[in-house]
Amino acid sequence: MRRRHLVEIADQRLCPRLFRNITTDVLRFTSVKTNMYAPILPRLKAVLQTLDCHDIVDLCSGGSGPVLLIQEQLNNREGYPVRVILSDKFPHLKAFEQVVEGTGCKVSFIAEPVDAASVPEGLRGFRTMFASFHHFRPEDARAILEDAARRREGIGVFEFTGRNPGIFLIMLLSPLYLLFAMPFIKPFSWQRLFWTYIIPLAPLVVLWEGIASNMRTYSPQELKELAKDIAVNGYAWDIGTVRGTWDLGKVHGIGLHKITYLFGYPM
Ligand SMILES: C[S@@+](CC[C@H](N)C(=O)[O-])C[C@H]1O[C@@H](n2cnc3c(N)ncnc32)[C@H](O)[C@@H]1O
Questions:
Q1: Within 10 Å of residue 11's Cβ, how many Cβ atoms?
Q2: Residue 4, domain member (yes or no)
Q3: Tens place of pLDDT for every residue, the chain, 267 residues?
Q4: Where residue 51 sits, what CATH number does that domain have?
Q5: What are φ and ψ of residue 27, in 5° steps?
C-alpha cells in the first residue's frame, strides 16, 4: 500500500483548539502509559553519547508525553542526563506549563509557535519528532532532514503508526479503548467527557486521525529515499524499524505495531 497524505483534522487551521488538545492528550496518555517508545531508547542513547549531546529540542511536542518519559529514563535508568525544550506550531500551553511545574528546570518550552519546517537559528540541540514526521509532505519532510544536516544537528524521527495490519487493528479498536480511558486522562476536562459520552465526537476524531496517520507514515524505504539526495558531507543516517512493545508496569508484552525510526547525525 503506498503512502497517501489523507487530511488530518488537527492540522486544519479551523480545527477547534479543544479537539486538537484532545488528540494530543490522548496520544500523550497512551504513549506514556504503555511506554511505547522504549525499544528506541538504547539507540537514542548511543547516538546522543556519540555526539556528546545533552540537549534535546522536541519539535511537534503536542501534549509533550513521549519525550519526557524518554528524558526520565535517560536520566534515571541510563545515567545520561538531558535537558528538554518543548515546542509546537500550535503550542498546548496548559500541558507545557503543567509538565514544567512538575519537572523543574530540566524542561522548558517555547510559548510561541515553532514550525518544525523552519527551526529558529538559536534553537540548538538534538531534534526529536515523535509521532509527527508524517504530518509533512515529502518536500517539507526532506527540508526538515536537510536543515538538521546542514546545521550539523542530530535528529531522531519516531513513528508508531504505519501501513501494517496490526496498527490498523489497534486504531479500529481505539474508540472502545477511549470509552474506558477518557476519565483518567490529565489534565481533567469536563469538555472532553462531554464530547466522549454525550456527543461521541472525540473518539471518532481520534479514530480518523489514527487511520489518516497510518496512511501518511513514511516506511523505512520511503525515509531512505528522502535522505538519499541530501548531500551533506560527514552526516550519517540510520533508518529502520523495531518491534513495538507495551509495558503497563507489572505486565508487558510484544505489540502488534512497529516503531519506525530515523536517526541523522554529524560524524
Ligand atoms: C500527532 S501530534 C504528536 C504530539 C507528540 N509528539 C506526541 O507524540 O504525543 C502532532 C503534533 O504536531 C504538531 N504540528 C503539526 N504541524 C506542525 C508543524 N509544521 N510544526 C510544528 N508542529 C506541528 C501538532 O500541533 C501536534 O501537536
A1: 13
A2: no
A3: 889 999 999 989 899 999 999 999 999 999 999 999 999 999 999 999 999 999 999 999 988 879 999 999 999 999 999 999 999 999 989 889 988 887 766 899 999 999 998 899 999 999 999 999 999 999 999 999 999 999 999 999 999 999 999 999 999 999 999 999 999 998 889 999 999 999 999 999 999 999 999 999 999 999 999 999 898 999 999 999 999 988 887 788 888 899 999 999 999
A4: 3.40.50.150
A5: -65, -45
Residue 2 lies in a domain: no
Mutate to test the pocket of ligand 1, among 18, 30, 88 (most ligand atoms within 8 A of CB): 88
Looking up cell 501501513, which residue turns up?
163
Name the nearest CA neighbour of 70 among 18, 13, 129.
129
The predicted-structure confidence for 95-114, as pLDDT tens digits, reads as follows 899 888 877 668 999 999 99
95 Cβ inside 6 Å of ligand 1:
no
How many domains does the chain contain in total? 1
Would you say residue 96 lies in a domain?
Answer: yes
Place of cell 522504549: 38
Task: Report whether residue 115 contacts ligand 1, using a CB cutoff of 6 Å.
Answer: yes
Q: In the structure grid, which three cell numbers stand for residue 242, read together? A: 523495531
Return the residue whose CA atom lies nearest to atom 19 of ligand 1. Answer: 115
Round to whole Å and give the CA distance between 110 and 102.
17
Cα of 115 to ligand 1 centre, how many Å?
Answer: 9
Residue 3 lies in a domain: no
**What's the domain range around 53?**
9-266
